[in-house]
Amino acid sequence: MTANETLDRTNPWQSFSRLNLGYVDEQYDKYLDDPETVDPTLRRVFDKWGRPKTIDGVPAASHTVLDNEGAGDPFDLDQVVGAVRLADRIRAYGHLLAHVNPLSDMRVIETHLMDLAQFHLSPKKLKAIPSKVIWPEAPANVRNALDVVGYLRDLYSRSLAYEFSHVQDLREKNWLNRAVESKRFQNPVPDREKINLLKQLVKVEAFEHFLHKTFVGQKRFSIEGLDVLVPMLDKLIQFGVHDGSRQVVISMAHRGRLSVLAHILGKPYEKILAEFVHAPIKSMVPSEGSKGINYGWTGDVKYHLGAAREIDEVNKKYPLQYMGETDDDGMFQVKLTLANNPSHLEMVDPVIEGYARAAQDNRLKEGYPEQDTGKAFPIMIHGDAAFTGEGIVAETLNLSRLSGFNTGGTIHIIANNQLGFTTNHEDGRSTAYASDLAKGYEIPIVHVNADDPEACLTAIQLAFEYRKTFGKDFLIDLCGYRRYGHNESDDPSATQPVLYQEIQKHLPVARLYQVKLERDGLANPEKLKDYQKHLNDKFQKIYQAARDKEKDLKEIPFPDKLAQPLTYIRTAVPIETLRALNQDLLDWPESFHVYPKLARILRRREKALNPGHQLDWATGESLAFASILKDGTPIRFTGQDVERGTFAQRHAVFHDVKTGATYSPYHHLKGVRATFDIHNSPLSETAVIGFEYGYNVFAPETLVIWEAQFGDFANVGQVMFDQFVTAGRAKWGQRSGLVLLLPHGYEGMGPEHSSGRLERFLQLSAENNWVVANLTTPAQYFHILRRQAAILNTDVVRPLVIMTPKSLLRHPKATSTPKDLAEGHFNSVLEDPLTAGDPDRITRVALCSGKVAVDLSVEIEASASRPDWLKILRVEELYPFPEKDLQAYFSRYRNLNEIVWLQEEPKNMGAWSYAEPQIRKIAPKGTRLSYIGRPSRSSTATGEPKFHKQEQKRIISETLHKNEKAGQE
């Protein structure tokens, strides 16, 4: 309806809703002040009908209240409500108005969300409302509701922008809003600190410029455009150190890594420049097994390397720019660690969470570790494209509040250069901001302009104080740009021509901040020029020295210690010690009500160590754990169902059937002073494997175990195996004794629950980088776990991969005697006891590994006669391959003419492709080598149980009968 039509009605206001009347009433106030400011048509309505009235004839603005003193002019309650709603809207959406993009002064103006008209507010009426009515905490200079709106709009839309509306905890949200609105962390920066800040920005820029002009086209992933990241980290570490943290762990990908290594970790310029010219600085290259974490014998590219540095207040060595007051006693030692990281971007995220948790845990007592989150804190620096695109980020964020994995809050910084490789953000994410993923975990977010260094330091302080107060994650979206392409050999103008025209014109942050300080009379241009020349001369001198030493480059040899066999390690435990430990494990309090069915099962273990009895897999494992704890080695054990065990075999944690309370027998072993830290994990492989790897690297004295629910689930963690577990020592000199338990075996359960993909681990096996085993008895499991515990924190330590059983967990042919534990040791090869006949009659040796070996024994035992021409050897340790042990067996059988490799996996999977060349190398001359097993397939196993049984019967029969043809394609 038009205004002209409205004029003809008796009461034109009755067609308006109350909200619309509020807007018209605001226009009427403008009409009273100056009729010319109102639309002519609406002015005619006001001329004829005056102030808008509701349908009952009451003026639209007549509902009034007095101020909170009960005196003075009345003010409109609707205006109060609208102003409060607008203030909340500004708090929630003010970031849309903020100037956080340094390349553009244009803000994403969303005035329809936050202007007065949207809330039917009148400036004149807002002036009549005291500020305390709208905002009780309003500063003294904010006098009325209109001032409140202006103040908040300005506060929430500068170069710092805040997103807190997704935080559901009201206590946290109120703390955050009050911190911002009181400007608690926006204290004036002292002049001295401003000058130091400028010098650090100049130092970063000078270093990057020197690298750019000296090593033209070499990849370095320059920090330029995000230079302020260095002083931000400096400030953040300062806060942590003076709050009591003694370990600070950092992860980041490539962008800016060299500057962070140089200026935060204190990696000498000599070392960095030597890596560019391929010249080692001998005094700085740590020997294998030392504290250095940068060097293995194969090495890695310079922008993947990490570093560790001590801050030693005792000897007055400071790597930090902003160190202020020290502890009360003036003495402390702090370790900074930047984790090594491959090109798989965010994969390092859970690794440093494991570092931090290991640094926080006290493992020198029984029970669970005592965690002190103040002892260490993690910092993660993410790429904007990677934070959104890499699923590992979400997995890692999900760990942040889980009891077995939390680290008391991580400070996340997105190094936002607005591009992923050559991909614009609109092609790389479906969200408005790169940081939006964090909203799902209720993590507070601050967006800050990387060209405003002081605002960046304010963001850092807010982040640290939130972490300190609430023990939760905080995210800073550092909005900048990258001055060059994805790397320095790229030409970015081919794909982002307009953007890079803008970047080329844009002054670096050091220059922008210098101009600001010169305007304030704090910066001396001539002194800064001298400082820049000093830096450049220093870099040039170091570079020339590195070039002169280029001829010294030598390959780092494979360490001899790793080639040593582990047969010298004694793992047997006296029988009386085992019996005492077994009794402790079964001696739960009478007041604790164990599930009756479980109690009956556990009570059977009481006789397991008596003469003439056999013990099963779970009992062997429990005694291994108990004896390792008794020896003083802490254990950490995680996986999706590890407390009970995927196959209900373990029961490391009991649940009271009446109260739901929990009890772990490993926490009540007599005389034990080492922790048993067991946790069911989230439905995540990659992040949890990374976490446990990091935990083990940082706590090398701890037996850290990860168990897959089924072995094939390890597929999802393949990057962690490829980049960290198998190669970390060769690339970075980073030692790990991580244990991986992967349930494996063909029981007709289909493709996804049969294979732990043994072949993939064997393909990665070289240089004694780990041990890969496929075991058949509890005693073998007992001894290999104890051997692993014995090599922890030594030069010969390496990870351990075990293909663990499923059906064998309770199989009567997969048991051991008490004597096997008390007097035995680990055997890389086991003889099948049912084929121990006359060696001279042996013509075929069948080599096999894992469950299929037990299947053979069952079939032989059920047969009317035993094949005296056949010898079955179980290869329990596949890598390192037991060449000497097998050669010794082969030499016993002078009539041997055939060796067969039997496996239940398809021919292109399992161990055959790995084992074949190993066996050919040691087979006696003239001996035929054949394969028995399933044919090559694209899927790991059939999904039809009937077909599975047929195939299994065939391969067993071929092994046990001379006339069957060996070797199937």
Describe this structure in words.
38% of the residues lie in helices and 13% in strands. The protein is built from 34 helices and 28 strands. The strands form seven sheets. It has an eight-stranded mixed beta sheet with strand order 3-13-14-10-9-4-6-5. A seven-stranded mixed beta sheet has the order 18-15-19-20-22-21-26, sandwiched between helices. A five-stranded mixed beta sheet has the order 23-25-24-27-28, sandwiched between helices. Helix 4 (77-93) runs parallel beside helix 8 and helix 14 (349-360) crosses helix 25.
Q: Main attributes?
A:
disordered N terminus, alpha/beta, 34 helices, 969 residues, 7-stranded mixed sheet, 8-stranded mixed sheet, elongated
Major sheet strand order: 3-13-14-10-9-4-6-5
Fraction of residues in helix: 25-40%
Q: Could you list the spans in which at least 5 consecutive residues all have pLDDT below 50?
A: 1-9, 61-72, 279-294, 313-330
Number of helices: 34
Largest sheet: 8 strands, mixed
Strand content: 5-15%
If you average the pLDDT, what whole number results? Answer: 87
State the distance separating the first and last CA atoms. Answer: 84 Å
Question: What is the radius of gyration computed over CA atoms, rounded to a whole number of angstroms?
Answer: 35 Å
Described by the principal axes of the CA atoms, the overall outline is elongated
In total, the number of strands is 28
Derived from helix and strand composition plus strand pairing, the structural class reads alpha/beta
